[in-house]
Design a protein that fits this description.
It is built from seven helices and eleven strands. It is α/β, with parallel strands linked by helices. It folds into two domains: about 45 residues, no CATH class; about 190 residues, Rossmann fold (3-Layer(aba) Sandwich), CATH 3.40.50. The strands form two sheets. A seven-stranded mixed β-sheet has the order 7-6-5-8-9-11-10. A four-stranded antiparallel β-sheet has the order 1-2-3-4, with no helix packed on it. Helix 1 runs parallel beside helix 2 and helix 6 packs across helix 7. The relative contact order is 0.14.
């Protein structure tokens, strides 16, 4: 499938060995592909980002007003955050990322969305554990307990397939009540999943939020052919 691998960065992190690599996928369409591997496993790729964009569009596309303040949990390759900055109503974007090298890739513009995010004055990187912040005073480094218009989360594979077992308490009723407490009236919580939404987690969201629904996001898979699907959970308060 691939030709021309180039390792752009290698770092040892609290979660393990992190690699950013670039390659040419001439068998697809010749485009440059950026990939992230964690402990030898593929974590993300610029070849597949439709789910991350849909996460933002489903959360923000139906909102009214302006001056929105938004949190993105998990920077990744920047697609969720970049999609948020496409909305002129977004006045402030706080991107919470636990792995400092990932922020560094964007600041050094090693990845495609690096310049867009780093040069937009609305965007602020915060090097922190999203889940620890959710257990504590929230996501604003200057105003403890500050409430936001939207919180978009794209870190774990699914609510039950986690990058780190320490995240598990977030995907419970008490954990979701904590994230709700950091939303303004009319606020939205949205969660990306590598799998379609499941009834159990949707039931939890329904108990905590005023509205909750699951969405399927379908997109082409140029490697295997056919299509692939991601899921997005969307929950809101009145």
């Amino acid at each position: 499938m691939s030709l021309g691998f180039e390792e752009l960065d290698y770092q040892k992190t609290p979660l393990g060995e992190l690699i950013l690599q670039r390659r040419s996928a001439v068998e697809v369409d010749g485009r440059e592909i950026f990939e992230v591997k964690l402990n030898g496993e593929y974590l993300m790729s610029t070849l597949f980002h439709e789910g991350e964009v849909a996460l933002t569009d489903l959360a923000l596309g139906g909102k009214d007003g302006d001056g929105w303040q938004v949190v993105v949990g998990g920077l990744g390759l920047g697609y969720t955050a970049a999609a948020a900055l496409n909305y002129p109503a977004v006045a402030r974007l706080v991107v919470v990322e636990a792995l400092a090298p990932v922020i560094d890739w964007h600041q050094r513009q090693l990845v495609p969305n690096g310049a867009l995010l780093s040069n937009d004055t609305r965007c602020q990187y915060r090097n922190a554990d999203f889940f620890a912040l959710a257990r504590g005073d929230g996501f604003d480094p200057h105003m403890p307990g500050h409430r936001f218009d939207a919180i978009l989360l794209d870190i774990d594979h699914t609510p039950s397939f986690l990058l780190n077992p320490s995240h598990a308490d977030f995907y419970t009723e008490p954990g979701l009540l904590r994230v709700r407490s950091f939303l303004r009236p009319g606020g939205v919580f949205a969660l990306w999943s590598n799998e379609l939404p499941d009834d159990h987690f949707l039931s939890l969201l329904t108990q905590v939020f005023d509205r909750a629904q699951g969405h399927s996001v379908e997109f082409p898979n140029p490697i295997q052919g056919g299509t692939a699907t991601n899921g997005v959970y969307l929950a809101s308060i009145l």
